[in-house]
Amino acid sequence: MSSTDVLIVGAGPTGLTLGIDLARRGVTAQVVERENGLFPGSRGKGLQPRTMEIFDDLGVYDAIRAAGGTYPVGMIWRDGERAGEHRMFDPVGTDEDSPYTEPCMIPQWRTQRILLERLEELGGKVAFGRKVTGLTQDEEGVTAHLASGDAVRARYAVAADGGRSAVRRAVGIAMTGEQVDPGPMLVADVRITGLDRDNWHLFPPRDGVDGDGAGGDILAICPLAGTEDFQLITRFAHGTEVDLSLDGIRRVVAARSHLAPEDVTEVRWASDFRPRAALADRFRVGRVFLAGDAAHVHSPAGGQGLNTSVQDAHNLGWKLGAVLREGAGASLLDTYEEERRPIAAQMLSLSTGVHRGEIRRGAATRQLGLGYPESSLTHETRTAPGPLRAGGRAPDATVDGVRLFDAFRGPHWTLLALGMPAPDIDVPVRTVRGPAHDSYGTGLFLVRPDGYVGWAGDTAAAGLPEYLTRFGPRRPPA
């Protein structure tokens, strides 16, 4: 039986992000994936600005940006003629505190490849073709049983194995949700001729339905940045059997656009699904945690699922590292569900609203306004807080010549002393000193490793030492 500190089940964006975060903290983690390789499709192609900030922290931003691109303007077609443009997102102004304001388009398979390369740079790896068939736990750890007959013993396990999570079922956690749309949807990566790559091509429904049931809903064909592929997505009437073959997809394209069947030259990946919104009743049982789609299943509209999943991993990673390597109390892990489950519920509501046309893509879908003001890890001690309160996302800024996102990058805590002296702290905290700043105001701000303000005060005497003793970093054991 092999052993590890953390067993991560699933090598999607969630599992790979968590693996990277743990590797840079010196935590031994084993990532197992039931498939023989990475997910091959473009499905989660939109990375929101908050996720780009996390990828900056993890050291993959440059690679993601180089491989991706911006979202193209929607082009509406009617009867083979261009009939107008559609802006997918409400505009958001740029400012210093949010350097990444627009979503990045990059196929999910490419995002995962970049994450895997980063994991391997840090000494981690993924064991492919390793299917978990059962899991038991006790007071000391978790034992996962594999289809090969092997077993893995870990101090903690994380289910990052998707919406049909075998680990979630093994520990008996139910999901509560609703069907967002009764009709099945088709998503496919195709090679296609006859369309430019400068626009997201939108074909509104024609009158009537053709004989094979292909008509009756919008067809969207989007060029995938950095590739020769297009992502095709459309919806069918309830009860339709979706044909994923080349001929089947050609029929749909011909029925719903001015394109000829032979304009679709290749299907590189295809899947059908029924949009659903569901939330796990719990995010933790004992030493087993749920993250990503194993914990929450979204409609793809609005691009919230993958992004919320990456943020789950970023939240859990530093807490596991603190417990396993820095001597923090195990109760710190209780805050994972406390913080992430309400956020997931909020994002599920947002995704469903976008899917149903009730909410426009805009500031909310960028996820920069999310935070943990009600968390037990959040301590706001000022009687008159400035523009930023404890629990909020720590914005970017330049303070006395130091870019804050550069100072935050890495697996450490950061203390900002703005407009006041910095106290001496006998724990490994990076300190940045400077004048008051418009985005922060004046005060002391203790920024967690995941980029949120844990404690804020006018003076260290207002509880900073006590906070650090309970939640903050500690020197690793000798």
Characterization of this structure:
It is a single chain. By secondary structure, the chain is an alpha/beta fold. Helix content is 24%, strand content 27%. The protein contains ten helices and 27 strands. It has helices at residues 13-24, 49-58, 61-67, 108-121, 166-170, 246-256, 305-325, 334-355, 404-408, 464-470, and strands at residues 2-9, 29-33, 46-47, 73-78, 81-86, 104-105, 126-128, 132-137, 142-146, 151-159, 175-179, 185-192, 199-203, 219-223, 230-235, 264-273, 276-280, 284-285, 288-290, 296-297, 379-380, 398-399, 402-403, 413-418, 429-434, 443-447, 453-457. A hairpin with a 2-residue loop joins strand 4 and strand 5. The radius of gyration is 23 Å and the shape is globular. The two termini are 28 Å apart. The relative contact order is 0.14. Residues 208-215 have low confidence and may be disordered.
